[in-house]
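User: I'll paste a sequence; please echo it back and then give the predicted structure.

Assistant: Echoing your sequence first, then the prediction.
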Amino acid sequence: MKALEDERKQMLLEWDDTFERFRLLYARLSKRVKQLQGSVTTEDTQAGVSAEETAGTSLSALTPRQQMIQTKILERRRRVNGGS
């Protein structure tokens, strides 16, 4: 009985360690994604990239319908931001 209890405690400790590692990796990944999204948004607005230019590069992985929607979103952002 003591052996089973010791094994259970060991498994719980290993699980806690694994979960903590996963949590840290996920936090790093989330932070990196936010940084990348922020840099892409900043580059688009600061560089004055038009929707047509963006559609030719980063939208190529999207379906035609998704590209059309994304283009409309980018055009609206340009208008809202004063055309820059």
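The helical segments are 2-47, 51-57, 64-80. Residues 1-47 form one domain.
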